[in-house]
Amino acid sequence: MKLSELAQEPKLIKLIVDHESVKEKYGEELEFWVYDRQPINTFAKMASADPKENFDEIAEVMSDLILDENGNKVLADGKILPMDLMTHCITKVSETLGK
Prior knowledge:
Layout: E1 12-17, H1 20-26, E2 30-35, H2 40-48, H3 55-65, H4 83-97
Antiparallel strand pairs: 1-2
């Protein structure tokens, strides 16, 4: 098989934050979208970011990854998520794109 046969346009996939504490606090599961493939520079930022040393790097990368169903950034125009949700979103993105 040729490598070029595996190269494709990214597709939006839905991720669900279904942690019990989220359902209890917000009354339901919460959903967001992320592209199933990321440019190499995004992958490199994710791989090299150290949340203990520089959480700003993680937040910056996540702001580009957490999208709505139309592919628009959720964290745009000064909008931010509550810290508990941001933590769960980071976990979901890492689990999904890390596979």
